[in-house]
C-alpha cells in the first residue's frame, strides 16, 4: 500500500490529514509528532501514529542504506514550524562538516515580505497577508487579491545570486487545497547537490 507521511500534527498537519484522507483514500497515512496530545488528535482509519520528532523520524526512515526495512512514501508533507528538508540535510551531513550560518542581509532586498527568526532562518512570501488555509493555488490569478501571480517562489529563490552563496530550491507541490509536499527523490537529490557544492549555500 502506498504511504503519505505527514510530519507535524498541529493545526496544519491535522488539516492535511483530513484532506489527504479524502483525496488519497487508498493511501496509508503516517502521522509523526513528538507531542502525544497533538498526535492522538490525528487518530483515524488507515493511519499509523508515530510519537517521534519529525527530523529524527525522517533521518531513520528516509535512508538509502535502509530502504529494504521501511516503506518509502509517495509524498512527504512538512507541517511543522521548521524547514524540514534543510534540517534533515543538516542531520545527514552534520558529521561531514556542514554547519548552519545566518543568511547575509544582502538577500533582504531580493525577496518579498521577509521575516527572520532568532535562529537566523529567513521566511519569505509573495503575500503580505495570511493566505487562506484552503487556497487552491491557481496558476495565474491570486484568489485573494485577484491579481496576476508573480514568479513562483521556488523559481525566484533558485535564481538569487549573492556573494559566496549558492541557492538550492526544493519545490513543494500542492496535493489538495492548502496542502503541499514533496517526493522523497527530491530530498535525495538535495543531498547530492549539497555534496557537489564547494562553499556556502542557502
Structure in words:
The chain has 202 residues and is of the alpha/beta class. The chain has one domain (3-201). It is built from six helices and ten strands. It has helices at 11-23, 36-40, 54-61, 84-93, 153-159, 184-196; strands at residues 3-7, 28-33, 47-51, 75-78, 115-116, 122-123, 165-166, 173-176, 179-181, 200-201. The strands form four sheets. It has a four-stranded parallel sheet with strand order 3-2-1-4, sandwiched between helices. Helix 1 (11-23) links the parallel strand 1 (3-7) and strand 2. Helix 3 (54-61) packs across helix 4 (84-93). It is globular and about 50 Å long. 16% of the residues are buried. The mean pLDDT is 89.
Low-confidence stretches: none
Largest sheet: 4 strands, parallel
- Gyration radius (Cα, Å) is 18 Å
Q: Count the domains.
A: 1
> For the residues shown, what is the average pLDDT?
89
Amino acid at each position: 500500500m502506498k504511504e503519505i507521511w505527514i510530519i507535524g500534527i498541529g493545526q496544519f498537519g491535522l488539516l492535511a490529514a483530513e484532506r489527504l484522507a479524502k483525496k488519497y483514500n487508498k493511501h496509508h497515512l503516517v502521522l509523526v509528532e513528538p507531542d502525544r496530545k497533538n498526535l492522538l488528535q490525528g487518530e483515524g482509519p488507515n493511519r499509523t501514529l508515530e510519537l517521534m520528532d519529525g527530523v529524527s523520524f525522517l533521518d531513520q526512515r528516509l535512508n538509502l542504506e535502509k530502504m529494504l526495512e521501511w516503506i518509502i512514501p509517495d509524498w512527504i508533507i512538512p507541517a511543522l514550524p521548521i524547514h524540514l528538508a534543510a534540517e534533515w540535510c543538516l542531520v545527514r551531513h552534520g558529521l561531514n562538516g556542514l554547519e548552519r550560518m545566518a543568511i547575509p542581509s544582502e538577500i533582504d532586498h531580493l525577496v518579498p515580505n521577509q521575516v527572520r527568526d532568532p535562529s537566523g532562518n529567513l521566511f519569505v512570501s509573495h503575500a503580505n497577508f495570511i493566505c487562506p488555509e484552503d487556497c487552491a493555488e491557481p496558476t495565474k490569478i491570486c484568489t485573494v487579491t485577484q491579481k496576476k501571480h508573480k514568479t513562483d517562489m521556488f523559481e525566484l529563490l533558485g535564481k538569487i545570486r549573492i556573494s559566496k552563496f549558492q541557492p538550492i530550491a526544493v519545490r513543494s507541490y500542492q496535493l489538495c487545497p492548502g496542502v503541499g509536499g514533496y517526493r522523497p527523490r527530491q530530498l535525495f537529490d538535495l543531498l547530492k547537490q549539497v555534496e557537489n557544492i564547494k562553499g556556502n549555500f542557502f
